[in-house]
Structure formats: structure tokens, C-alpha cells
Amino acid sequence: MKLDLSNYTTPLIIILILMLGVILLLSLELVKKSDQTSIFLKYYESKYLVEVSPYILVKRISTQDDSFILVDLRSELEYSKGHIVGAINIPVVGMDNQTIVGKFRELMKQNPNKEIIVYCGSASCRLGDRIGYLLSINGVNVKKLAVGWNEWKYYPKLFMGDADIDMGAFIVEGPEPGKYTGSPQTACVGESC
Length: 193
What we know:
It is a single chain. This protein is an alpha/beta fold. The chain is built from seven helices and seven strands. It has helices at residues 9-50, 54-62, 76-81, 97-110, 127-136, 149-154, 157-160, and strands at 51-52, 68-72, 83-84, 88-89, 115-119, 143-145, 171-172. Strands 1-6-5-2-4 form a five-stranded parallel β-sheet. 22% of the residues are buried.
């Protein structure tokens, strides 16, 4: 007895096509997850390299570390009403890109081998990210403070916890950067100093 498969050919082809489609979709999903993992890894690796912890900045300021330049990106008026001690002001809003890049290149030229750290109004302010991107595509690498002025002045417990630190010593008013006048021990949080 001979088996006639002619009636089954079309359904078999359809089943094979469906199975191949499912396999293709599953493999695409695996590629998507792999791409996502790669994107996440790149983000966190770069975040670690680019962002500066406010806790670390407190320590660096309090120990008179002069290996960095702190730049406040807010307006002159905002800066003069209060800024992080030692910060200079480069009010970038309203400046064209060429001028911004030029100012930071000049800053680097005047301060070779110093790290440049920028901050703006708040942690959710994207100005620091935009300026960091603009500068990096023009060969100027800057780091960004993980918090902005608002968190620094009004919510220091967010990053300093219950540490007994006078954050007022890290804030100045006026058009000049100011100098830190506290002691290095002020920033020895959870450590023997």
C-alpha cells in the first residue's frame, strides 16, 4: 500500500513556515535582549566614568584638592545668589555652541591636567548632559556632578545621609568662586580621619 502525501504537502509547508517564523522571532528577541544588555552596560560604565559623586566632591573640596575645576553652568544671577564654593561660572544658556566649546578649551589650556566638573540647577537638569555631549564631540572631556545646585543647597541629606557636616561651609554667595574655610575632617564621613 502506497501512502499518498499529496494531500499533506500544503499543510506541512505551512507548519514548517510557521515553525521557522517562531524560531526567527525567538532569535530576534534574544538579539534584542543582548543589545539591551550591551546598551545598559555601556550606560553604567560611562556613568561611572563621567559622573562625580557629591560625597566625593565634598571630600575633595574639604581637603583643598586642586586637581579639578568646578564649573557652574547657571546664569550669572543664579550663580551670584549662591554656588558651590570654588566654582567658577560659565553661564552657557544663550551662548552659541562655538563660544561654549571655545570657553572650555581656554579653561583646559589655562588648567592643563585638571579635571573639569560641571553642574547646573538640579539633578534633573539636562544642561550638564547637553554641555558634556557638546564638549565631548569637540574633544573636550568634562565630568558632571551627580546632583545640581538645588540638591546641594536644600537637600544635602540625599547624598550625605546623617553625616554631621556643615554644608554651609561649601556654599558661597557673590560673583567670586570663594574659598573653602572648613577643616578637612568636616568631610570624613564614616571614616577615621
